[in-house]
Amino acid sequence: MKKVLHIVGGLDMGGIERWLCNVLQYKSDFKNTEFFILSMHPNKKNIVKELSINKKNIFFSKKENMFSRISILIKTIRNISPDIIHIHTSYSSAIYAVISKLFNIKKIIIHSHSDRRKIESNSSFLRKTYISLMKYIISIIDVKRIAVSNFSGLSLFNKNFNVMYCGVNLHYEDISIDILEKHKDKKLVFHIGRYTEAKNFPFIIEIIKKYKSAHNIFFVFIGSELNPLQNICNEYSLDNVIFLGAVENPYSIMQKYASLFILPSKWEGLPLSAVEAQSAQVPALISSNVTEEANIGYATFIPLNLEDWVYNIDKLLSLDKQDKNLDNKFSMKHNINLLNKLYSL
What we know:
It holds the Pfam family Glycos_transf_1. It comes from Proteus mirabilis. The chain is of the alpha/beta class. It has helices spanning 15-24, 66-80, 93-102, 117-120, 125-140, 150-156, 178-182, 201-210, 227-235, 250-257, 272-279, 306-318, 332-342; strands spanning 2-8, 33-39, 58-60, 84-87, 107-112, 144-147, 162-163, 187-192, 217-222, 241-245, 260-263, 284-287, 299-302. The chain has a seven-stranded parallel sheet, sandwiched between helices. Strands 10-9-8-11-12-13 form a six-stranded parallel sheet, sandwiched between helices.
């Protein structure tokens, strides 16, 4: 039995975790393979119930410090003796890869999920030194380097990497949500994501303000840890917002209710939420900071200029729904085939 250990920063509702959920739903397509997960965050566990593996195969760091993370990695390697370690933790992947090498792991994979070059250009000297050191270690160590997009690969590896698009599991089920049923005659503009700097929520707030008096347009947010955003909306008396929290099947919800999907991010790797929206035949308005590899037929990319966003939101909301032939590069079948090749020993 081949053992594969995935190392992640946390098990919340982010893109990495959702992709991992999708992969594990197809675990029977991996012959003689057992999966394990090590989370380097002790408390982020929102998505654990959706992971299709034995919960005994999921491990957590006890504390949020590097000593605890290294300790649990060593303990986990000794306990399960993995054949393959697949690391998803950005710069700190270098540390975990070196430790894995000390235990003669047969194959180590470092997976880049984000393009952080623009935001890291403003980092402190100490932070830039850390990043340079981690990237140097990754460049010289014998590992497989893969990325969710070309930009993500350039961000972490500079060169010598392969792009592997993450698969999206598109399973439609007829989900009814009371608050959305109440407003289904309105234009519903969706956003998916946690309250992080990357998602650029201050910009989203400015967009919502522009539509404060537009009673036929509502902004719908899917994601965990959005209390800060709710508080800001309350401060500005913005009542054209709906918060759904974390949901298990955003694809189905968007297909049924969404008029438009927006993603004005400062940076991304390759956002699966945008792929899901387009797969549901929902037009997606996306920041030009995001790679156009995320376009499968329904995406529009524009710079982060508020007036341009308002203009394009109005324009896209006025269009009739169109049927297009979508690119299938994000299919789970294609993704699983690539992973099977990657996991060969």
